[in-house]
Amino acid sequence: MDTDPLKETFPDGCDATLVWGPDYLHYDFGEHPMTPVRLDLTVGLARRLGVLDQLTMATPHPASEAQLLEVHSAQYLAAVRAASKDPGYLGHGLGSDDNPVFDGMFDAAALISGGSRQAALEVWEGRRAHAVNIAGGLHHAMRDSAAGFCVLNDVVVAIRALLDAGAQRVAYVDVDVHHGDGVQAAFYNDPRVLTISLHQDPRTLYPGTGQPTETGTGAGEGSSINLALPPATSDDGWLRAFNAVVPGALTAFKPEILVSQCGCDTHHEDPLADLALTVDGQRSAYAAMHVLAHQFCEGRWVALGGGGYGVLRCVPRTWTHLLAEVSGRRVDPSTEIPQEWTDDLRRRGVTARLPQLMGEGRLPTPARWIPGGDSWLDRAIGATRHASFPLLGLDPDDPRD
Q: How many structural domains is the chain composed of?
């Protein structure tokens, strides 16, 4: 991407839906990094900044048994139901430290999957240009097991709905710090779905997959792209990598709709990973995906949440920027955090240092990637391009591709 996506403006805003309901907060593992408080604080901040006023609100409805069976086995769905009523349940990845069981787990996970499905169809059926479900993005769940805080894979549910509705070219871009392994596995041999995951090098972080050589199989060869980023990659390097891979791949694939997983655990303060983006860099990433949706997909963009465990200082700000980006009416990063939001946290007993502004005071200025660089990051970019670009008919050594 040769231009700064934040310079692209949407004077009339964008027609967009937020699929949201307080019952999302029932997806609650208890004392666990994946706390629903992060969703509650995001919606509270977005409301106080007037961002929700720019979005059409839609109440989520749970995915049906038939819809879930397109993604998960009957045996696994039965296991999730059983675990929802048995605090001692062990099996199918449930009952582990990552995925502890809780009362009502099946219903909570089915609601999130249904919400992401609704968001996808809102866009595909032309009711809205964009739609977002910040509770979604549970990209690790597999057909027969829970994994990585994810019980049901709402992303795959949403993409299956698009394929069932007639979509032939769905692009999925995952910017979570962890590899989008469950989504890749679901579509690894399906040429209709291009999965692109930018994540911390799997030699250094869960789930240990997502090497550049994972490019798809059978008819889907070339439909899986993985960019493994070195620990400590910051805004400029991350955006240089994104720009060196994603626009070119989308140019070749010609998607009809863009689905993005917008995990914000790439933040430099995230307790579970080692990348070093700021809120400003994450905001730029969301702006880039918005611009690409208009460039390649006639604006059709479905944005889902994902990881992010900086509950007070990162997630609410970053995902409020996501909601504002989807609405086409951005929030300036110099905007002050509303005092009412801060006061609410203090009333909840929060004594930690809270952010004062919507940004961190840094304007990312990524350089353009050129072949031949010898840094770990440049070698990672080159490895991805050499593994995937020829399969898409692109020249891996031509920076114009």
A: 1
